[in-house]
């Protein structure tokens, strides 16, 4: 049982930095949405949804980071993986400029 709690503690401490980043980003998006909807007198509770969303996305990022095709250049500086992953993730995105 002690190994279980050590593993749980390790997972929790590993997810905290990503969760904080996504929490701040999602709260800013929720604040923006709430401010826009307030113009039309629409009540929209978003704090809890944004907090849970940040935790879920942070854990998904941690899981995806363990996949072998994500870290293709383990011996090189991080910028190689960042550039490669940006191309892979943004490649399918169709940008329309009006």
Keywords:
70% helix, flat
User: What composes the largest sheet?
Assistant: none
- Poorly predicted sequence stretches spanning 5 or more consecutive residues: none
What is the domain total for the residues?
1
Quaternary structure classification = single chain
Q: Give the N-terminus to C-terminus distance in angstroms.
A: 59 Å
Percent range for β-strand residues: under 5%
| Count of individual helical segments | 3
The helix/strand class is mainly alpha
* Structure summary, number of beta strands: 0
Helix content: over 70%
What is the CA-atom radius of gyration, in angstroms?
18 Å
Shape field: flat
The arrangement of helices and strands along the chain is HHH
Describe what you observe in this structure:
It is a single chain. It contains 3 helices and no strands. The chain is mostly helical and 98 residues long. The chain has one domain (2-90). α1 (2-38) crosses α2. The mean pLDDT is 81.
What does this entry show, briefly?
This protein has 98 residues and is mostly helical. The chain is 70% helix and 0% strand. The protein has helices at residues 2-38, 47-65, 78-90.
Outline the secondary-structure elements.
Layout: H1 2-38, H2 47-65, H3 78-90
Helix pairs in contact: 1-2
């Amino acid at each position: 049982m002690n190994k279980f709690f050590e593993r749980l503690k390790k997972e929790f401490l590993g997810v905290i930095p990503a969760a904080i980043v996504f929490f701040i980003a999602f709260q800013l998006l929720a604040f923006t949405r709430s401010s826009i909807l307030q113009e039309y007198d629409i009540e929209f509770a978003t704090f809890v949804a944004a907090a849970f969303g940040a935790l879920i996305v942070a854990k998904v990022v941690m899981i995806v980071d363990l996949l072998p095709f994500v870290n293709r250049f383990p011996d090189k500086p991080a910028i190689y993986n960042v550039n490669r992953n940006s191309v892979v993730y943004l490649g399918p995105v169709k940008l329309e400029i009006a």
